[in-house]
Amino acid sequence: MLNILYQDDYLAAVDKPPGLLVHRTGLDAGETRFAVQLLRDQIGQAVWPAHRLDKGTSGVLLFALDAATASALGKAFETGEGIQKTYQAIVRGWPDDEGLIDHPLRRMPDDMRSQREEVQDAQTRYRTLERFELPLAFGGFERLRVARVELQPLTGRRHQLRRHLKHIAHPIIGDSTHGKGLLNRAVAAFLGVHRMWLHASALALKHPVSGEALRIEAGLGAEWAVWRGNRSHPAPHVSPGQPMG
Q1: Boundaries of every domain in the chain
Q2: What is the dihedral of CA 179, 180, 185, 190, to 10 degrees?
Q3: Residues annotated as part of the active site
Q4: Fold of 3-230
């Protein structure tokens, strides 16, 4: 069963586990479990996903419970008006304390709306919460530098966070598409956990019917504790943030 974080007559939000698709797609034709069907069967009514999370991403996933609410939410997510998404990720290296990634992104090949390439503005704010090292030799170094960061996408482009972090040379650990495969495999073997370390930790929005300000949060899963249990030589604390695990 999915962990329901919020539910009323119009909305339902769940904590999507990593590895679960939001809905059926030709890109993963072999998959048989989807968040849409699981939630529909769990609450006994039709549901409409208001946005999407990548298969490997965990965290807050919002659904509408009727077509009119789905339409209103779709417009809000398309414009980004009144929507604030917050993520946490584990990345390679030690990023700056904070910053703005302002880097246009091309539409991905399976997301083209015309025959021509389309380039879209894209901005992401980030804040480094913790810097530490793993006692894992890699790339000629005795220890691997990693960091836990908080991310707020200001635009909603496909794979935006993953592509932006690659752009600043701090790819998300476990990202098989935009990260480093050899590094991902080494870290997964060391930790004993194989996943992309990206989590949708909070979603703030105006309720499409009542106008109420909502903030829906999903804590980090239990598997995130492996970072605290295996790290060594933590760097000086950077910014206040919730402890892992």
Answers
A1: 3-230
A2: -90
A3: 54
A4: Pseudouridine synthase (3.30.2350)
